[in-house]
Amino acid sequence: MDTKGLENETTLLHERICSALGDPKRILLLYVLNEKPRCVNDLVDCLKSPQSTISRHLAILREKNLVNAERQGMNVIYSISDPRVIESLDILRAILRDQLQEQTQILNNTL
Amino acid sequence: MDTKGLENETTLLHERICSALGDPKRILLLYVLNEKPRCVNDLVDCLKSPQSTISRHLAILREKNLVNAERQGMNVIYSISDPRVIESLDILRAILRDQLQEQTQILNNTL
DNA sequence: CATAGTTATTCGGATAATCGGATAACTAGG
DNA sequence: CCTAGTTATCCGATTATCCGAATAACTATG
Q1: Strand order of the sheet with strand B75-80?
Q2: Which residue, A61, A71, A74, B75, has most beta carbons within 10 Å?
Q3: CB atoms < 10 A from the CB of A16, how many?
Q4: Which of A27, A46, A99 shows the shortest C-beta gap to B18?
Q5: How do residues A21-32 score in pLDDT, each as one tens digit?
């Protein structure tokens, strides 16, 4: 098999997208922003984390083009740039749900 | 909004699934295994990485229940346990493809 | 232009992830 | 049982990531 081309592509996929999903707060940010666009301060309130932390995570999501940042007066409004990211995460969420269900099933059978 | 429940879920999602996708070699492993089940040695040849590295990554994918391991004689055959992981990755790949296309588009317009 | 509000960046320290060689554990075959 | 082949784990070292306080940069308003 042509592992060469596939390897290049997966490396790129990781660098440009997956690495951004490698932190729980960034995943949460994406879901919160999926509800509606918000400014940084709102996100600070939502996630109850220091502003520098939020801003840094937003910078990473911005680098990967997963969110848009639009200045409105003093605020910068962040929004999801591609809803397919949520679609993708939702699939993983469904996998997790089934895994958990399977585990409790096994637990119930052994009792 | 109920950030509490969402936060718990995203934390779990990260711990149990997304963290496994946080390494380019593991992503590649998933795609290679998606073609067909393979034993560790085959994967070592495919990825051209030391056996200990491959085995460690496989252990992580196993922990997260993203791959199955089945002993067959001297070999351990690994396979994808849930094709939806690939489905999810393919969506991210599509996003990446569009991003790249958009970038080259911009590049062409400025020339 | 001084000030207050908002956001971005810098910084050092702490934690976690990854690597590959070495070794151990396991399995089949002679 | 001894050996060869396969896979898993251990280990130290390197590298990467994350954190939050402090600070800088930017924006509107008086």
Answers
A1: B38-39, B75-80, B67-72
A2: A61
A3: 18
A4: A27
A5: 999 999 999 999
